[in-house]
């Protein structure tokens, strides 16, 4: 970048990410600002309310953030899969649109009911309804998975709460 500043690589108005995704893409393709993502995550941890406005019913938020899969449906998920949730392993399920902690595992870090999803550039968000925290990590490391930065971030945050 010029003079040690930032360099615009992909202008919002002409970004290639605005083009429709060909075919089915599952959880891919969601774009957001950090402010809007923060409001969304805060709404989840607040049980469906944003400020004094109810956006989702408590029942809808509970369904989103509760495991919806049976054990046999999770069998193909490797025990080492973490989705940025550290050593949770087999204590992982899936709600509507994200991973859910069903058991904190041997280290006991975090809370049952944590809800999370990551992005292609090693981004991650999670909400912990027990500790009432929201974490949004908007890094740009591609490909994800090289360094366990999401797992390390989680360790740092929960160790600071202890």
From TrEMBL:
SUPFAM superfamilies xrefs: beta-lactamase/transpeptidase-like (SSF56601)
Record keywords: Hydrolase
Keyword Signal in annotation: no
One Pfam family from the record: Beta-lactamase
Domain Beta-lactamase-related: 19-153
InterPro entries xref list: Beta-lactam-related, Beta-lactam/transpept-like, Diverse_Enzym_Activities
Record keyword Transport present: no
Protein's name according to its UniProt entry: Serine hydrolase
């Amino acid at each position: 970048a010029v003079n040690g500043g930032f360099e615009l690589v992909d202008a919002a108005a002409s970004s290639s990410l605005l083009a429709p995704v060909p075919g089915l893409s599952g959880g891919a393709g969601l774009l957001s600002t950090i402010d809007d993502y923060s409001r969304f995550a805060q709404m989840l941890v607040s049980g469906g309310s944003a400020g004094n406005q109810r956006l989702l019913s408590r029942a809808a938020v509970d369904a989103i953030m509760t495991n919806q899969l049976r054990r046999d449906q999770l069998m193909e998920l490797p025990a080492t899969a973490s989705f940025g949730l550290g050593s949770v392993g087999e204590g992982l399920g899936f709600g509507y649109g994200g991973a859910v902690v069903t058991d904190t595992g041997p280290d006991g870090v975090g809370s049952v009911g944590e809800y999370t999803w990551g992005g292609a550039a090693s981004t991650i968000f999670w909400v912990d309804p027990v500790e009432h925290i929201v974490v949004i990590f908007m890094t740009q490391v591609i490909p994800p998975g090289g360094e366990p930065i999401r797992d390390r971030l989680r360790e740092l945050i929960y160790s600071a709460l202890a």
